[in-house]
Amino acid sequence: MSVLLVADVPAGQLATDVTAKTLSAARALGGEVHGLCASSNAETAAAELAKLDGLDKVLCVSSDNYAQGQAEPMTDLILSLASNYEHIVFPANAFGKNIAPRVAALLDVMVISDVMTVIGPDEFERPIYAGNAIQTVVSGDSKKVLTVRTANFDAAAAGGNAAVETLAAADSAIVPEWLGNEVQKSDRPELTSAKIIVSGGRGVGSADNFSLITALADKLGAAVGASRAAVDAGYAPNDWQVGQTGKIVAPDLYIAVGISGAIQHLAGMKDSKVIVAINKDEDAPIFQVADYGLVADLFNAVPELTKALE
Amino acid sequence: MKVLVPVKRVIDYSVKARVKSDQSGVELNNVKMSINPFDEIAVEEAIRLQEAGKATEIVVVSIGVDKAQETLRTALAMGADRAILIQAADSVDVDIEPLAVAKLLAKVVEEEKPGLVILGKQAIDNDMNATGQMLAALLGWPQATFASKVDIGADSAKVTREVDDGMQTLKISLPAVITADLRLNEPRYVKLPNIMKAKKKPLDIKTPADYGVDVSPRLTVKQVVEPPARSAGIKVGSVAELIGKLKNEAGVI
Questions:
Q1: Which run of H or E residues covers position A15?
Q2: How far is B238 from chain A (nearest CA, A)?
């Protein structure tokens, strides 16, 4: 039996990094892996998907119904293909988390969310209680529908050459009307795929002061993150949020500035390879997970660091 | 329009979960339990709809142990009108899976015929993020998950959703299922007189058998362990030392 990997393709643009990481998890399940590329004008994205190493086939479906990843038509499409697959795999991002449970319910199987380790075709590790515990579950269902926590998997390399098969769109009774997206335009890397992240917390003190964080990030070519406390205080937009209720990240270098290190936040970044903490409170819990801690006033240390990197 | 709000009793968000020594799960006996924070936001949103004249009646429903009555009373004290408890577990250690919960809720929807179901996007215990989507699927209804803004019209709703790179706004027809994200609203504090009043509001007690739903789990939990601890590293004395370590020792810049 085979694995169906559902790629995230907003408005015809393949989300390459999350898809490549999800593919690594899909490969670990065993069997052929077919990539589903459904979006408006999906051909270009399908060709790009076919280049990821490890896909045996790409299914390309073009329809405006799939352009914004709407769960209802995507579910109808996936169900029309489901009989060929034992596993249906999504990235555990807003796209996958929205659709996977809908698919699972209609297949009468229990979804397995946020898979961080594939132990076997029916056995998985996943975090519970905001990452304070790790659960090993065995699925007794005939089909397995899972979402993959991409931060735990390396991206599949390029160099593949899978055949692309074009399919017709499935009928769908419900297609929610898309009224628009409000996206923060930025030249910085995406949080979930960045090699370096600089994050600010409540200690940054104001939205204006966040320019210290962004200046350092830009010097390092890094993405900008924020703790939930900073987002709640209005210092940073929500899509910068790292933590249980935000994004789960695992960059090579994570610099936490003015972040105390609440469990909530640690759940989102403790898999980073190297963690740096800059905080004036030497008892802050963030220092318990930091490889390098600097007890200092961020208003002196961060500009100094930015300047020293010039 | 009637609004149905499912709520779950979970470990209080301020309590650190501790794994049991036999690795069977997380210690929940003698631990402070509360309404799931995302469900509390859903209850608040329903009450605001009622205050705006858009909802006529708010029915809250919980599925779990007998003590989930306390969770329902909290929702009633906030302003919900009546409650249903589906007693599906004898022990707090038994977590009813989202698929079974969705099947039970679908039966409640059949009976109650609400125009809207609103619930939290996920429970902070099993972190599955699945019940709302599964319920919408079983009902054949549209869904709008991770809502940060909800605007209910006569036969449709405009919902702004938290997505990975910002917000997405969808228009869905009603009836529908909406799941609440953190920024949808800030729930009100419950006032003491309302707690007293809530004790007199109706609370029906049912069982899964009343709805003909099998709640046996599909996933077997083999073990629950603590995540590998990350050990603290070293303190550096200056920015210059930090840069030196990052360049020469860690090799990350």
A1: none
A2: 7
